[in-house]
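Summary for the steering committee. One of the milestones for this cycle was to obtain a three-dimensional model of the protein with xanthosine-5'-monophosphate bound, which we needed before selecting residues for the alanine scan. The sequence and ligand used are listed below.
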Amino acid sequence: MKQDMIVILDLGSTENTRIARAIRDLGVYSEIYPHDITKKELLELPNVKGIIVSGGPNNVIDGQKIDVLEEVYSAGFPLLAAQHPVAAADSVLNQWPTEDNDLKKELSNFIFDVCGAQPNWNMKNFIADQIELVRQQVGKKKVLLALSGGVDSSVVAALLHKAIGDQLYCVHVNHGLLRKGEAEQVVEVFQNQMKANLVYVDASERFLSKLENVADPEDKRKIIGAEFIRVFEEEARKLEGIDFLAQGTIYPDIVESGTKTAKMVKSHHNVGGLPEDLQFELVEPLRQLFKDEVRACGVELGLPEGMVYRQPFPGPGLGVRCLGAITKDRLEAVRESDAILREEFEIAELAGKVWQYFTIVPDFKSVGVRDNARTYEYPVIIRAVNTIDAMTASIECVPWTVLMKITDRILKEVPGVNRVCYDMSPKPSATIEWE
Ligand code: XMP
């Protein structure tokens, strides 16, 4: 293994993630582990140079105050204890500094001067280490990956292809709710350029017929999720002798799904609900990475920037932006207006700056006029928001000139649309998506 590591033991501090990030920013790899890790498990981790125990307000589970196992304290690793009294600590902090620079100063004293760690955490080394780990885990066996074309699954695909080549089987299910050009890009990059094993399934018609006349947002989401698993499962059964399932799980997914001390925010759904008889062992090479690190990893692996720096896109895709019961004409209007919005945001240099931007087409019409004749057509709603964690969001103040150009193009180029609106609502009270 190429990189030194500082282990943070999770005693419920809400600061763990910030500390891990700060250590990685200092060039040293850092991972967070549950408080009850054993000495044996710790000794099996590669290149551990020191341990940080960080207490906090959540260090109680079921009414019991939790602590790290005594044997870990005496395992011989340099120890920094913060907000948690430990007699054996080499360094003690009563409070984590709130200023990032002060935090880094404290941490660099510990990780470099006390632990003697080397600042050798970078993407090249991370990739080299993961390739070695994946090869060890997988051996000569086959790995299946649901490749959505999103950042995380694309980076996993590129990494695994580099590690195990033809032992990787990617399945790309096009549910007909993807953005314009997305399925084509997946085929181009992974099949044509990378020469990876890619099974491309165009299931558009199948999804649309399942969704016919279904207007309730939650029903739509459930149908799309369940059908996705069904299609994926059918393809998985056709590919015989698969032992592993790769997932683009990243670190925030693990935190959001609840650690031992962090409360669950939302259940995460990658390819979760596969049937019991399809028993796979998981391969999750990105599970310790933060989002920006995943992107850096993708760039290092040679993926196109447009794929690596793409905005978040919900699993149910354009299905939650074509409001109510999905119809082909309105779905096309969402797809085309979204493509125009994305093009114009690129031109206006907003694409890299705004967190998420898309269009919505509701299921009602309004009266308009075109060529001196009355029209009765759909509106397109533009939404552009900024957020840190998607829990709250504020709207982007898009310049009028840009909005007017987008409006002009949508009204000219998208059939069946006679009106364009801008969504002014922050989250809360609105959510980012409309359904
Ligand atoms: P909301 O609408 O809840 O969205 O404010 C917050 C963020 O999550 C994205 N989103 C999803 N992402 N699967 C996903 O992977 C989903 O089912 C899903 N629903 C919403 C949304 O686009 C926004 O970035």
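Key point for the committee: DSSP finds 14 helices and 17 strands in the chain.
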